[in-house]
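Minutes, project check-in
Item: structure for the 277-residue chain
Input as provided by the requester:
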Amino acid sequence: MTALIHTRAELAAAVAGAPDQVAVVMTMGALHEGHRTLMRAARERSQFVLVTIFVNPLQFGPNEDFDKYPRTLETDLEACRAEGVSVVWAPSREDVYPGGAPSITMNAGPLGEIIEGASRPGHFAGMLTVVEKLLMLTRADVAFYGEKDFQQLALIRRMVRDLELGVEIVGVPTVREPDGLALSSRNRYLSADERSAALALSRALREGATHTDPEAVQATATKILQEEPAVRVDYLALTGPDLGPAPDEGPARLLVAAKVGATRLIDNVPLHLAKGR
């Protein structure tokens, strides 16, 4: 039976009584199959899976969609129950940020200023602040995050390592629709035509990743994105697996962000480079 709790006191009691290591999945709700995949991965590691549902105001910019971000607690609970989640903690803003917005927040450093961070100033500072708080409040032993938000995952890993937080961070591969579209809570905002156009993102990444030469990777992905007029590209970035410069040879990552209609989407894929081949 999945327990729904809201307060810090209830959370502390639940964690204190955990029969196994605390496996945490952090979400902002509007749960889909991608979130459920994280829950299953957590369930494989522990008898005690804790899902947090909190729409974090700190990681939304002034022109972003905090107010219209979907809140679907009842259907989210049904998903958690179906996946055997032990506890769902759905705190209020006051429970997470007692006394108002924190005066001390996390600094995402240079890694937080590139790619997605260049397009969304302050986003990663807000994300890391709430993640650090939730890791501490839930007493997490292991936490699971999707690779779709790859820069987020990289920053969380760096924060946990740099600050000696003692939590294992597990990345779970991106879950996609049968046609290739990466699952996202924001997909529900797309009209039928916009959703069709949005397939250019995953197609560009997939086709780009069939190449090993960095220039061919970039050229192939760029061409596909340019051929879809409804897609307004924010960035297409080829990086190393740690988001540093792309190597001439070895593992790499290809990342994209674009607006389709009023909806901003991100996606990425792993690939292997071998310059000149």
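Outcome recorded: The chain has a mean pLDDT of 95.
No further action items on this chain.
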